[in-house]
Amino acid sequence: MRTTTPSQDFIRGIWQENPVLIQMLGLCPALAVTNTVKNALAMSAATFFVLCCSSVLISTFKSIIPKEVRISSYILVIATFVTLADMMLQAYAPVQHKELGAFIALIVVNCMILGRQEAFASRNKVYRSLLDAVGTGIGFTIALVMMGGFREILGIGTFFDIPLFGPNFEPWVVMVLPAGGFLTLGFIILGMGVYEQRKQARQAHGEAA
Amino acid sequence: MNDQTLFSIFFSAMVVNNFTLAMFLGLCPFMGVSARVETALRMGLANIFVLVLTSLSAWVLNTYILENAPYLRIISFIIVVASLVQIVEMVVKKIAPVLFRQLGIFLPLMTTNCAIFGLAIFQTNRGYDFLQGIVFAIGAGLGLTLALVLMASIRETSELSDIPAIAKGTGLTLIIAGSLSLAFMGFAGLL
What phi, psi does B152 have (nearest 5°)? Predict the structure, then answer.
């Protein structure tokens, strides 16, 4: 196992190993509920809560959980926190809860959360697992809010329900429909590919000179 | 209770609200297993099988056991799905070892396949009865298979064409998925 410093644990999830944009994990919520920034934020908050709580709990009990049934135990822990998140959203943000619908329950099968438990929380100290979870959660939030922003601005012409353009704006409806989700993420990833390619080309150029 | 006709449930689950292209469920296999048509087809069939079993057990669980404890749904459904996948894995390994080898890692990965879990949740939220649930599962499974096979055939073809290096891989897959999703929106007016 390679060693990392605590700050690397934190930073890594935000950019280098961004769960959605680089690792392609948790795509289901990232595409399904990002038609507006508000939905994206509610979804990220719920996922963030589940991720941090389960990371801390699993990291605390890592020596007690038998190796053979670890995946099932992780899923049970995650499912418990998802139920909690579901109830809290229902109580404090009923509108958002209704909009997100079944996708709150689907946080259970978000591979990103299970992945962090298996890859990190089950082998590291509690505080570092928390750092890792917070970093990954922030990375997830950034990706979701970015998607939500693009889609809301283009598809409805508003940002956080604030109208951006004049009354003559013709909304690009397809962006808030499912197809828009695929296309937005596709273009973001293509854009990142171009950026990486340029960076590499610059580096190669620098070495040659 | 839900009074949709069986045909409309089936058709809606298969094309209009296609699990993959309209609801983004089961994206992992959609991205991972869609490179070859043959594997995609097999994955799709395995999915139909597990989906029908899930629908059945979710219905039993929901009608007879969880009647008074709806808050335990998420936890109990995920346990059912996980154990179901495990059982299917053992059965397939015993009676069809060749198929088991071909499916490989994708069989156990079905536990975290959102399509399976999503089916159980949607079925419960919409109050489908036993028969409606089964039809919903078959429709959703066929829809997944359709999306997988379409995607795989497009990707097989695109391998031979001249694509800029940066677009290869996930970016291109997502753009293709977006166009497929656009095409499937055409079905929306049917029901």
Answer: -65, -40
Q: Could you tell me how many residues make up chain A?
A: 209
End-to-end CA distance of chain B: 20
Q: What one-character DSSP code corresponds to residue A167?
A: T
| Closest residue to B174, CB basis, from A80, A105, A185 | A185
CA A66 centroid distance within chain? 29
Establish if B149 touches chain A: CB-CB under 8 angstroms: no
Instruction: Tell me if chain B has a CB within 8 Å of the CB of A88.
Output: no
B78·A28 Cβ contact <8 A: no
Query: A162: which strand partners?
Result: A159
In whole angstroms, give the CA distance from residue B158 to residue A111: 28
**pLDDT tens-place string over residues A10-53:** 888 887 888 888 877 878 888 888 888 998 999 999 999 999 99
Residues A38 and A36: their CA atoms lie apart, in Å, by 5
Conformation bin of residue B169: beta by default, left when phi > 0, alpha when psi is -120 to 50:
left
Range list of β-strands (E), chain A: 158-159, 162-163
> Tens of pLDDT along A125-135?
899 999 999 99
Q: What pTM value is reported for the model? A: 0.87
DSSP three-state, residue A61: coil
Closest CA to A126 of A188, A62, A47: A62
Give the number of C-alpha atoms closer than 13 A to the C-alpha of residue A198, restricted to the C-beta side: 6
Domain boundaries, chain A: 6-208
Distance of CA B157 to the CA centre of its chain: 24
Rounded Cα distance, A133 and A20, in Å:
14
Cα B164 to Cα B78: distance, rounded to the nearest angstrom:
42
Quick one: CA torsion of B170, B171, B172, B178, rounded to 10 degrees? Answer: 100
DSSP state of B161: S
Q: Which residues of A touch B118 (CB under 8 A)?
A: 102, 106, 109
Whether the Cβ atoms of residue A182 and residue B178 lie closer than 8 Å to each other? yes
